[in-house]
Amino acid sequence: MTERKRKAKHPMQPIVWDGNGVIRFQENPIVSFLLEWASARGMDLNALEVLGHEKHWTCDDWTQFAQLHGYSVGGWGSLGYVDDEAYGRAQELTEELKKRVPKDPGKAR
Fold first, then answer.
1. Under DSSP, is residue 82 helix (H, G, I), strand (E, B) or coil?
2. Which pTM was predicted?
3. Is 52 in contact with 62 (CB distance < 8 Å)?
4. Which of 33, 65, 72, 81 has the fewest CB atoms within 10 Å distance of its CB?
């Protein structure tokens, strides 16, 4: 009974144009608000990383967290905890988005 169940992989956030010509993960506004709120009180991303080591947060947890606060796909792919398979899938979704919407709808205005 002490066997730990394997944690399911986190889902990938949808990929969207941000209106400024950048392809990003769709931001969860609650996560972004909480990050801004915590940062103003000294718990910025660097402090979260230190805490994450204490809490044993996984690379998969960090990968999803970066998506949830709206990281650009290109920047996200350069993060040390994002694996090649996940980045490849994000690139595939990016290419699909580009085919459906050939130019950034935010820039067309």
1. coil
2. 0.81
3. yes
4. 33
Side-chain half-sphere CA neighbours of 76 within 13 A: 32
Estimate to the nearest angstrom the gap between the alpha carbon of 42 and the chain centroid.
21
- Say how many C-beta atoms besides its own lie within 10 A of residue 73's C-beta: 20
In terms of phi and psi (left: phi > 0; alpha: psi -120 to 50; beta: otherwise), the region of 70 is: left
Q: d(Cα 47, Cα 60) in Å, to the nearest integer?
A: 18
How deeply is 72 buried, as exposed, middle or buried, from its count of CB atoms within 10 A (0-12, 13-18, 19+)?
Answer: middle
Task: Please state the domain extents for the chain.
Answer: 17-100
